[in-house]
Amino acid sequence: MINFNLPPFTGNEVEYIRQAIKNNKICGDGEFTKGCNKWIEERFDIQKALLTTSCTHALEMTALLADIQPGDEVIMPSFTFVSTADAFVMRGAKIVFIDIRPDTMNINEELIEAAITNKTKAIVPVHYAGVACNMDKIMEIAQKYNLFVIEDAAQGVMSTYKGQALGTIGHFGCYSFHETKNYSMGEGGALLIKDYKYIEKAEIIREKGTDRSKFFRGQVDKYTWVDYGSSYLPSELNAAYLYAQLEEADKINEARLNIWNTYNKELKELEMSGMIQLPYIPEDCVHNAHMYYIKLKDIKQRQEFIAYMKENDVQTVFHYIPLHSAPAGKKYGVFHGEDEYTTKESERLVRLPLYYGLQQEEVEHIVRMIKEFFR
Ligand SMILES: *Cc1c(COP(=O)(O)O)cnc(C)c1O
């Protein structure tokens, strides 16, 4: 069976975990956590990066930093993972879902402005498959209405928009290092902060509402409880695993892009003959091969496709059930405007295996089976 995903492993992970243990530092903010933060800050040119226990938690931190209050409205696509909405629902926000663009599956930037009310506090663009949303337009709208832009860049680590790293364009950016993402620490993520003025508050929220970070830097004599907060600090053991991956980030990225490009080249003929649709990458975007998906005729054909591939030892998966049609989505959100593409396009989409270590022969087998299905 060719798995849909396997967690990335490059070689130094175990040694670094051993070092963390030897350093007698397995809780958070040790050398490996700091190393990961610094790597992200330097590589992506961002004021501050803080490793977190997940991307969901990084999003939760942004909801606190943006001071989201009950009744506030947050605009996002419905075609996304539940965490994008959950983080704001937990603060009592009402989620305003808007339609996606059928080409990139990203939020349709042209529909955002009409969904803004005097309760709107933030826009949350999700960079689906590591392909950027139209950030110029989104930032322009946010500036005009004085809104926060919180990038859900869970899938966008190492991708860029007009040369800028995803997650560094809005006020806050959130990365995921879950085992299904390009770079992993099992469970984990990062919060990226653009504006200097939010850094101290973010450090306090991450450390249970204490000024412990200041204490460790020698800026205060004792640390104490200064504000609300939680425990969003990952263990050094997880950070050690991630550090090994970040050191090999270019190698992982290249390997993934090779697989992505092979799929794209080999499946072109099926697209030309009108059988399927391949992903679209806008000119301003450099992507990170987070995902390879194809779009079929409809949900029925997708079901047949997934079953056929499974019979031929290939695991393929679909996602997402649009959030506005889920029970919690109905309870906590509304869909603004018409659902022209969200449901229709999500029902056609299927993801092919793509992970670091997937072999060329396996990709060829998958492509062969896809072509056979359409024959
Ligand atoms: C994976 C993912 C998340 C959640 O990431 P975790 O690190 O598992 O919390 C959030 N949003 C999107 C778009 C994702 O793909």
TrEMBL record:
Principal EC category: transferase
UniProt keyword terms in alphabetical order: Aminotransferase, Pyridoxal phosphate, Transferase
Active site (catalytic residues): 181
Superkingdom assignment: Bacteria
Protein name in UniProt: dTDP-4-amino-4,6-dideoxygalactose transaminase
Modified residues (N6-(pyridoxal phosphate)lysine): 181
Family classification: Belongs to the DegT/DnrJ/EryC1 family.
GO MF annotations in UniProt: dTDP-4-amino-4,6-dideoxygalactose transaminase activity; pyridoxal phosphate binding
Keyword Transferase in annotation: yes
GO annotation, biological process: polysaccharide biosynthetic process
Key word Cytoplasm present: no
Gene3D superfamilies: Type I PLP-dependent aspartate aminotransferase-like (Major domain)
